[in-house]
Structure formats: C-alpha cells, structure tokens
Amino acid sequence: MISLIVVFAFLIWRYFHDPGGFWDWLTLAGVCLSVALLLIVIGVIYGVVNEIKIKQYQAQEPERLKQHQARFYCYICGKPSPQPYQYWDNYGENGQLYSSFLVTDYNKPTELVQCARCQ
C-alpha cells in the first residue's frame, strides 16, 4: 500500500514538472486508482469497526436480560419474564416498505399474566 502511494506521488510530481500527453493519462489513471483504493480501505475499516460494535453489544446481552428479569417477575411465585418483548417494525414511506427489523423492548415483559384482582 505504501508503495502505491509512493508511485502515485511520483506520477503527480512528474506531471507537474513535465506535463504532456502520456503523463496526463498516467496521472489521471493514478489518481482514479488511488481514490478507489482509499474508498476500499475506508469500507474495510468501517466494516471492522461495525463488527466490533456488534460483538460488544451482543456480549452485553446477558446483563441486559438479567436486569430485565430483575425488573419484571411475578410477585407471587417469583417467576421472571423469560425474555423482553420483541416485535417486527417496518420502515417505509408513502405505502412503500423499505425494510423490516426486529425490535427488542426491554420495558415490556413476556409471558407474565396480569392479575385480574390487583392488576
């Protein structure tokens, strides 16, 4: 990668010191390749950072579930909510559906029946 940068820098230097037909095309090709290479490197870095964030979020899942179960449990028998409430949400405008994604709501319990007497 460093060698490519050196080659592109040499081409640009050569273009400014001796502009001509061949060097014009070579410099243009070098600049286009360097921009493409830079975009590829940025994409790879973004993908790696995003993957690290996802792994960190997934590593915290047991702690979030433990806090959810400490908040939502049956006050009579002590049975905790097995998992938070999950539902599919749609994203779209003007009647067009762009995507659906699973939403986890830690503020709603599941499989806990509300008491008919005391609510």
Description:
- By secondary structure, the chain is an alpha+beta fold.
- It folds into 2 domains: 1-59; 75-119, no CATH class.
- Helix content is 55%, strand content 20%.
- It is built from 3 helices and 2 strands, in the order αααββ.
- The chain has a two-stranded antiparallel sheet with strand order 1-2.
- A hairpin with a 2-residue loop joins strand 1 and strand 2 (96-109).
- Helix 1 (2-17) runs antiparallel to helix 2.
- It is elongated.
- The termini are far apart.
- 3% of the residues are buried.
Chart the SSEs and their pairings.
Layout: H1 2-17, H2 21-59, H3 61-71, E1 84-93, E2 96-109
Antiparallel strand pairs: 1-2
Task: Spell out the key features of this protein.
119 residues; 2 strands; two-stranded antiparallel sheet
**Beta-strand share of residues:** 15-25%
> What is the typical, i.e. mean, pLDDT?
80
Described by strand count, sense and barrel closure, the largest sheet is: 2 strands, antiparallel
Q: Count the helices. How many?
A: 3
Helix/strand order, N-terminal first: HHHEE
Compute the number of structural domains.
Answer: 2
Low-confidence stretches: none
Strands across the major sheet, in which order?
1-2
Give the C-alpha Rg.
Answer: 28 Å
Relative helix content: 55-70%
* Termini separation: 66 Å
Return the structural class. alpha+beta
Shape: elongated
Beta-strand segment tally: 2
